[in-house]
Design goal:
Multidrug-efflux Transporter Regulator, Chain: A, Domain 2; 2 domains; 3-stranded antiparallel sheet; about 45% helix; 7 helices; alpha+beta; elongated
């Protein structure tokens, strides 16, 4: 079983695309899970990722590309390349309820989604796709 990665305040703020000051405020409000060790806060990568996936983060936070690069997630464009479909086709599957995905905050008109590898594999099996 893979170990949980522990993040510093700087790493977590960068990961979430926010300032350190806002991160401290959110921890004190109980909206982002953090542990104070001595005079420093530490964060569980998995716990922060779960807050993002559940959509429980405030609208001021814009998760960075680091989240998309996490090994257990795919963007619609990445998923599309694996099954020879366009990004829009994959978003169509998401909107139709055929493929589970997490909607990320921000992005404006271009909505941002993340797909877990497990959800993608289940979708491929169900729909008969063979990922490259």
């Amino acid at each position: 079983m893979e170990r949980d990665r522990i993040l510093s305040v700087n790493e977590t703020a960068k990961f979430l695309g926010t300032s350190r000051q806002l991160l401290y405020k959110l921890v004190k409000e109980g909206r982002i899970p953090g542990i104070k060790l001595g005079n420093r806060y530490k964060f569980s990568y998995r716990a922060v990722l779960e807050v993002i996936r559940k959509g429980e983060i405030p609208p001021k936070i814009r998760p960075s590309r680091a989240l998309e690069a996490a090994g257990d997630n795919l963007t619609p464009a990445q998923a599309g390349k694996l099954i020879s479909k366009t990004r829009q086709a994959v978003i169509g599957y998401i909107k139709a309820g055929k493929l589970s995905a997490t909607r990320l905050p921000g992005g404006g008109a271009r909505k941002r989604y993340l797909i877990t590898r497990q959800d993608f594999e289940n979708f491929c099996k169900k729909e008969g796709y063979s990922p490259k």
